[in-house]
Amino acid sequence: QVQLVESGGGLVQAGGSLRLSCAASGSILSINFMDWHRQAPGKQREWVARITSGGMTNYADSVKGRFTISRDNAKNTVYLQMNSLKPEDTAVYYCKTYSSPWGQGTQVTVSS
Question: CA 112: distance to chain centroid?
Fold first, then answer.
């Protein structure tokens, strides 16, 4: 089972940027897709972005144009670049693939 560790969260003001990292326990070359999800207090977890092994990307409408998902296969790491952050982006962010458990996530807090 692939294990993933999220990092890079923090506290930023609205309009700021953060880059989240998702480090895998092994090679990600054989993994068909990697997703980012987020969950705010009192809210359901929502899907945010996906990148496939072929480099295809998809985004939730709420983040399209502001967030960019990417991968570095040599580092076994997936990234989420978040720009123009809004208070409603505040949540715990998780990375996930079909064979991974849910990890601890990384907290992103955006102040107004």
Answer: 22
